[in-house]
Amino acid sequence: MTDVWSERAQAYVESDAHREGADLDQLVTWAAGAATALDVATGGGHVARRLRDEGIQIVTCDPAPGMKPDVVCRAEDLPFAAASFDDVLCRTAAHHFPDVGAAVAEMARVAGRQVLISDTLYMGEDGEAAERLREGDERGRVRDPLAALDPADAVPAPAQASECAAPPGAPEATQPMAA
Q1: Is 121 helix (H, G, I), strand (E, B) or coil?
Q2: 91: buried, middle or exposed (CB in 10 Å: 19+, 13-18, 0-12)?
Q3: If phi over 0 gives left and psi between -120 and 50 gives alpha, with beta otherwise, what is residue 43?
Q4: 69 vs 21: CA distance, rounded Å
Q5: Averaging pLDDT over each range in 13-17, 21-25, 121-125, which range is the top one?
Q6: Which one of 16, 34, 40, 154 is most buried, counting C-beta atoms within 10 A?
Q7: pTM of the prediction?
């Protein structure tokens, strides 16, 4: 899998959908006050770039060497000590993780302050079919990445989260889970 993502690295750097967006702006807002951060599955490095612009010391990681991360590793196996970073962020990548629950647990372990995740859960039936074809139907292992998480551990999303619009054709957004 890593070689495929390395081959696509430049496309992620150049992608308008990855380079900007309300979700990226929101992550940057939520990370305000952090001195250090880890960008998990950095891809084109857009989260890292924006956080650096805000004066946050950032480390990037990705399993694909072609994405040119600071550290090559899977989200499920972060090679950092507990609470190594104030914030740990992951944008538009969790749906690719083989074990979302393990990845989130690792992110929580290395975060000293908060974990911020923004991801695409539904892109319409055409998008879903394309994802299954592209990934060899591996996505079927976790249809909804949030399903791998224990609802008892959920923290309500801040009110600002509703400002991020769902993509066209996506079902209505659900309310944040109560703690």
Answers
A1: coil
A2: buried
A3: left
A4: 22
A5: 21-25
A6: 40
A7: 0.69
Q: Cα–Cα distance between 88 and 34 in angstroms, integer?
A: 10
Element (H, E) at 28: helix 22-30
Contact present, 121 and 146 (Cβ < 8 Å): yes
Structure tokens that stand for 139 in this block: 């996505």
Amino acid found at 9? A
Query: Which residue carries 């979700």 as its tokens?
Result: 23
Query: Cβ neighbours of residue 179 under 8 Å, at least 6 residues apart?
Result: 154, 155, 156
Domain span including residue 137: 2-145
In a domain, 166, yes or no: no
Q: What residue has token string 């805000």?
A: 54
Residue with tokens 């290395």: 110
Number of C-beta neighbours around residue 120 at 10 A: 18
Give pairs for 80-83: CB < 8 Å, separation 24+. 80/38, 80/110, 81/110, 82/109, 82/110, 83/110, 83/111, 83/112
CA–CA dist 60, 47 (Å, integer) = 9
What would the pLDDT profile of 73-106 be if each residue is shown by its tens digit? Answer: 999 999 999 999 999 999 989 988 989 999 999 9
